[in-house]
Amino acid sequence: MSAVKEAAAFFRSEPGFHRLFIEMKRKYESLGRVGGAVSLQSFSKEERESIAAFFGKDVSRVFLSDFEKQLGQTKFAGVGLVELLEHYFGVPLMSNKERRQAEAEERERFFARLAEEHHWFAAVRGQRFVQTAYEADRDGLEAAVRLVGAALCRLPLSSYMRLPLFAQQVASDPHAFDLSTLPGRLLLSALQATTPGQWDVTSVESVNELLQSVGLLREDILNFVTCANILAETEGGPHPVFSAAAETNAALNIPLREVWPLVRAHPARGKTVYIVENAGVFSTLLDTRAPLVSTNGQMNVATMKLLDLLAASGAKLYYSGDFDPEGLAMAERLLERYGQSVTLWRFSLDDYAAANPVVDLPSERLAKLASVTSEPLRPVKEAIGRKKKAGYQEAIIGRLTKDIEGDLIHRLEGR
Questions:
Q1: Among candidates 90, 69, 82, which has minimal Cα distance to 29?
Q2: Which segments constitute the Conserved hypothetical protein CHP02679 N terminus domain (predicted)?
Q3: Fewest beta carbons within 10 Å, which of 130, 196, 227, 276?
């Protein structure tokens, strides 16, 4: 047996040294050298007696350099402390700095390999949830990356498919790409990085549209459009539900599943559709029997699909929303998507003042105003930024009602 193995075996047989060796190992890892000292204040009487016997005197603390020097006075002369600790614990001794460096190098090799195998991974590897997944279970992360890679090979789809059915085909698990799972979050990030366009994965609306752009439907029952006095057609002719609702001035919540088959849509009367942000405003305006659509606070896929059909029919779209960053962002999105088919409705400075803006806007919401760049929205955007208050369209419901019932909209329409 070599001297270092014999020394390690000797100290293992002396239980009074185990705690000291643990502390000396920690000290070396902290300093990266044989230095510093270990206090024996909290050691047991038996442990202190064993250490005293080794040094030939009582000591209140052990300097690592003294222990190594004393080791040279025994039959284990020539054995260094680092070598002894490595054999005692059965692992190479490494400083914390060296360990962090080694871990960083191993992490880099891991991510570089995955990025080479899956080129999309290079764009998402730095995201916090990816780094956290590596620390928690890097094998699980690698499996998720491979699963997403298999999914991306099939996208975009030639026809729409519900996300759970797609997941079943790819992973034999309909919940594999649920957005609460690691593969689901990875798939979303990969699509965000590889699909042309600006996608905000913190927005439900944007997430649904991103998935739709590659043929995936996240959900088609609870994703619905609220409308009234709209007529629609499928390939088979007029849709009876839309027709019956228009006859009775009834509001409809039409799920995406029923919107997809539509090939045409138009106002039941006139040429104008009034789009509002809030359900309460929609319900109030329903008494006017006007063609209406409510976004219910977000532009989901079902709503956009119906508005696409309405715009294609030549209908004029008038949009009224809240005087807050989110309302302006929705207005801008409609302007970008429908161009001259849409007209901003009651977004003037006078309307903002009439909305009684008293609700404070925190800085994180005000920051969203920076993304609103449309010139027609600039005056009210700047006013909201200065006042730092939100106003809501419920406060101008009288103006909206009069517009529909009075002469203003007729003049705007050129009638």
A1: 82
A2: 35-231
A3: 196
